[in-house]
Amino acid sequence: MGPLPAAARAYIACAVLAAALCAAPAVRDPSAVPWSSVVLLAAAGAACELLPRCRLALPLLLAGAFLLPPQAAGLVAVPGALAARDVRPPARVRRLWHAAQYALATGAASFAYGLAGPRLVTAPGFPAALLPALAAALVLAAVVAALDGGVLVTAEGRSPRTAWRTPLPEALLPALLCGPTALLMAVLWHSPYGPPAALLVLLPMALSSWVLDRCHRERAAHRATVRALVQAVDLKDRYTRGHSERVGRAAVLIARELGFTGARLEALRFAGTLHDIGKLGVPTRVLRKDGPLTPEERRVIELHPEYGHEMVRGIGFLDEARAAILHHHERLDGTGYPHGLKGHQIPEAARVVSVADAFDAMTSTRSYSRARPVPAALAELRRCAGSHFDPRMVAALCRALDRHGWRTGTPVPVSRNVPVDQRSITAGITGEITAEIPSDITTDITAEITAAPGPAPSAGGPR
């Protein structure tokens, strides 16, 4: 980061001065401040900042706002902000800024809490204190977001509307969630059990924070693994650039229509994105061949689902996705590959990915064929539903596109009621059949059908 603009330095200096002025009454009249509570809370906050991935500063600040008068509550934030780890340069300026920012926010929260009347931090007063506590938490979040917006305006030159619109929603929810916990800490602080019992409340919160952090890191690692695998395929086969992501997106649209949520929805996203990972096992000369494929080359390419399944076998989080990778070229009538499964022998995830793959193949431009309009592609999917594709999956894709449209660059509204000229579809399919088959045979639906051994199926039948 370069030098801070003069406006940003002036803004930070004003914040530091304002925080100092707010804390001045505590220095002038030390007898009005419970310094033992200030020291304990400030020390706990500093310890939380020094521990890796220990995100407990917010409940400690709110507890300080509930326990202390405004002039002292702001002091709780200072040691933790000055001791913070992993601060981007200029580190000293950032630490000073955060110290002032959170001191002002905590003082404002304490002031808002005090407006409700006497500080109700005893057990009998707990229910009555809940609403003031939530209001104080909102004040703290709002002040933090407002001060952050000022930095974005003065340091990065953002417009005020953008600067203040983005941070506020992100700050409100954590504050609301931490408000009741901080109030419980304050109640225990003045209970017969004292501050040790209050600080013990942080233990389950620390454990929850650690677990959530691990989950976020694990999900990030999963997505990084998938991205790396997709990029490896992209380097080998030009057509898959963008195709894998689009198939993943279409698979998610179908899965949501079918009611998939949580881990199953994520598995479908991974399955769609990685369905062609087995291309890494296919010789590059075959994938990039410009002319028609020999029967032997076709057999090699038709092994790519099995190659993909073996490649991801040891990746635990791809459990359900593995079945989709292996069977996404199966057909309901048993004419697909690699195992010739029929009907519901084909895993549900594979039936989803099969429709998503076929749809993107028909609506994508390749070197030997132009992309078809979305209504034409949907008409072809509906025509082949029941023989090649699961009708439920086709219907789910149609409903999803009615609602959300389909975009590679900009959204394209789609309606199943758009009239489609069947003759133009058939002509386009026939053109594809007679075209030379290049490297992306594994994703071209009609070319594979017509090249299969035996009598040629009806024009346009997806693979």
UniProtKB/TrEMBL annotation:
Q: Which CDD domains match?
A: HDc (cd00077)
Q: Where are the transmembrane segments?
A: 60-84, 96-116, 128-151, 171-190, 196-213
Ranges for domain HD-GYP come to 218-413
Q: Which SUPFAM superfamilies match?
A: HD-domain/PDEase-like
In terms of Pfam families, this protein maps to: HD_5
Which keywords does UniProt give here? Membrane, Transmembrane, Transmembrane helix
Q: Which NCBIfam families match?
A: HDIG (TIGR00277)
What name appears for this protein in its UniProt entry? HD-GYP domain-containing protein
Q: Which organism is it from?
A: Streptomyces luteosporeus
Organism lineage reads as: Bacteria, Bacillati, Actinomycetota, Actinomycetes, Kitasatosporales
